[in-house]
Design goal:
28% strand, mainly beta, 6 strands
Length: 111
C-alpha cells in the first residue's frame, strides 16, 4: 500500500538501459542505471502538478559527478542533464566565460 512516503531501497525492479529511461511522470523513487562495469543512481521526485512537476538527480559512481534536470508542465524533460560544479569537479575558464590564466591576449585598459 502507498503510505505517501519515499521508498527505502531501489524503487521496484527497475534496472535501466540509460539515464534517459526514467520518465518524468514515473513514481518517485531511486533508480539504478548500469554504466558498463559500474552504475549511476537516479533520484526521482514526481509530484505530478504545477509548472515543475518533477525533478531528477543523477549521481555517478565514485563521486564522478552529480547532475539534475527538471520537467515542465505536462511536457516532461525538455533539456538534458545539467552538471553541478563541486570542489572536485571545478569548471574550466571557458565553462564560466572567464579568461584563462595563461595563453590569452588582452587589448585595452583593464579596470
Amino acid at each position: 500500500a502507498d503510505v505517501n512516503a519515499f521508498a527505502l531501497g531501489m524503487t521496484g525492479d527497475y534496472t535501466l538501459e540509460n539515464d534517459k529511461s526514467v520518465g518524468w511522470n514515473w513514481k518517485s523513487g531511486v533508480y539504478n542505471v548500469p554504466t558498463g562495469g559500474a552504475s549511476s543512481l537516479i533520484l526521482h521526485f514526481n509530484m505530478n502538478i504545477g509548472s515543475c512537476p518533477a525533478v531528477q538527480f543523477c549521481v555517478n559512481y565514485k563521486n564522478g559527478g552529480i547532475s539534475y534536470r527538471s520537467a515542465r508542465d505536462g511536457f516532461g524533460f525538455e533539456l538534458d542533464w545539467t552538471e553541478f560544479y563541486t570542489t572536485t569537479r571545478k569548471p574550466s575558464a571557458g565553462d564560466v566565460g572567464a579568461l584563462p590564466v595563461s595563453g590569452g591576449v588582452i587589448n585595452g585598459n583593464l579596470g
